[in-house]
Design a protein that fits this description.
The protein is α/β, with parallel strands linked by helices. The chain contains 11 helices and 27 strands.
Length: 431
């Protein structure tokens, strides 16, 4: 009997419009996270920590930085058979179209996966979520229930469930109804769960809950191939509802931290939450590490800095600045007498040497990082930004303003300085 093959497929997302301008020059999985990681590191690490090392990432927009990150981060020995492959949309004899949705992306790449035996499984994961899951538990429950498809489901209160796929289950947790992103409160109310789900929750309380799809699926490979012999484009909207009644759909209850960080607001709050004394997601976990690129950078240098609830990544230099609730990426540099409050700073790709600094002075260009005597609040500073001296950035009281090409945008009440942007000395943006 041949060994069961388990293939992991990570959806790289579309244009990432909800995360724009952070996705202007990179695809969504390549967006920096938590100072030194990328979004894609989360699902890849969940796969690796679960013992699954055959991983495909499906993407099609701005893939250069993602390719570079994965190639530099995930190297496997020749004996384990492991890999992380990026599959971008490509022209073939059958199709010259870009991916038209999640299901279409998987359909176009079925021939790459090599999952052909009846016992083979495909795990489909989202590329823009922060969570830690032992996928072995999901697979074991899938097999023990004899399911054709299993969907990881997060119990959410009724007021949190809007905008997600919701499901109804019976006492055996078999899915009997699935509604993609309902907006009608009456429909959401009708899908509230019974006691069979609450018994699986850590602290159910008295609230009413719905089961929301996390966009994480386990398919029998044969069922996946059969389900995609059509022109359906999306799993949640079309494929999953089409299988109701004809296939055994099982709900796997996941009652732990999970955050969809596909919007600027969610991304901002998720990163700042990591500065809390007890953050909702723990990156300091030796048993289930989050993997990323090894950079071999020097230690952080603090020259008279005052820091409160601050996370600072390797290679950063902070000179007599005040930082309050700040998350700083690799090689972040802040000049003296500057104040940063509620700021996600992504750092830079390289240090500047003496020749670079002389050239900056000659051209009247600020050095990389934040200059002196600056005040920055409620902001995301993308990579390689150059912010001069005496700059004030505070979106409080200002209306959202974002569109392609802006160096400084405001979205969801958060100010974003775009990658590689240059803000001269004395630049002010404040109500």
């Amino acid at each position: 009997m041949s060994k069961r093959k388990i293939i992991c497929i990570i959806m790289g997302g579309g244009r990432g419009t909800r995360l724009n301008p952070l996705t202007q020059v990179r695809c969504k999985p390549a967006v920096p996270l938590a100072g030194k990681y990328r979004l894609v590191d989360i699902p890849i690490s969940n796969c690796l920590n679960s013992g699954y090392n055959q991983i495909f990432v499906l993407t099609q927009f701005n893939t250069a930085s993602l390719h570079r990150h994965i190639q530099e981060s995930y190297k496997f020995d020749p004996f384990g058979g492991g890999f992380v492959d990026i599959l971008s949309a490509e022209q073939t004899e059958k199709s010259d179209d870009w991916y038209q949705g999640t299901a279409d992306a998987v359909r176009q790449n079925l021939h790459h996966f090599g999952a052909t035996n009846d016992s083979d499984l495909c795990i489909i994961l989202s590329g823009d979520q922060l969570f830690r899951m032992n996928l072995n538990d999901l697979v074991s429950e899938h097999l023990s229930h004899g399911a054709d498809v299993s969907i990881a489901a997060k119990p959410l209160s009724l007021n949190e469930a809007g905008g997600l796929g919701l499901m109804r289950v019976n006492e055996q947790l078999q899915i009997t109804e699935f509604v993609e992103k309902p907006k009608d409160p009456k429909v959401i109310q009708s899908l509230s769960v019974g006691p069979e789900v609450k018994t699986k929750m850590q602290d159910p309380g008295s609230e009413e809950y719905c089961l929301a799809s996390m966009g994480i699926y386990v398919f029998k490979a044969s069922v996946l191939n059969e389900a995609l012999k059509n022109d359906m484009r999306d799993f949640g909207k079309e494929v999953i509802p089409s299988l109701l009644g004809s296939k055994h759909l099982h709900s796997y209850i996941f009652d732990d931290y999970w955050e969809d960080i596909g919007t600027v607001k969610a991304f901002f709050e998720c990163n700042l939450g990591l500065t809390d004394v007890q953050p909702p997601f723990n990156f300091y976990n030796e048993d289930n590490r989050i993997y990323t690129r090894a950079r071999y950078l020097p230690a952080v240098k603090l020259n008279g800095a005052q820091t409160f609830q601050t996370v600072i990544a390797d290679g950063s230099i902070i000179n007599h600045a005040k930082l309050h609730r700040v998350l700083m990426g690799v090689r972040s540099i802040v000049g003296q007498d500057s104040t940063l409050e509620n700021v996600v700073m992504m750092g830079s790709d390289s240090f500047e040497d003496e020749n670079d600094l002389k050239e900056n002075h000659t051209k009247g260009r600020p050095n990389i990082g934040v200059g002196e005597n600056c005040f920055i609040k409620n902001a995301i500073l993308d990579k390689n930004v150059r912010i001069g001296n005496h700059v004030v950035l505070d979106p409080t009281g200002l209306e959202d303003n974002f569109k392609p090409g802006l160096d400084v945008s405001i979205r969801d009440g958060v100010l974003i300085v775009s990658k590689d942007a240059i803000l001269p000395d004395g630049y002010h943006l404040k109500a």
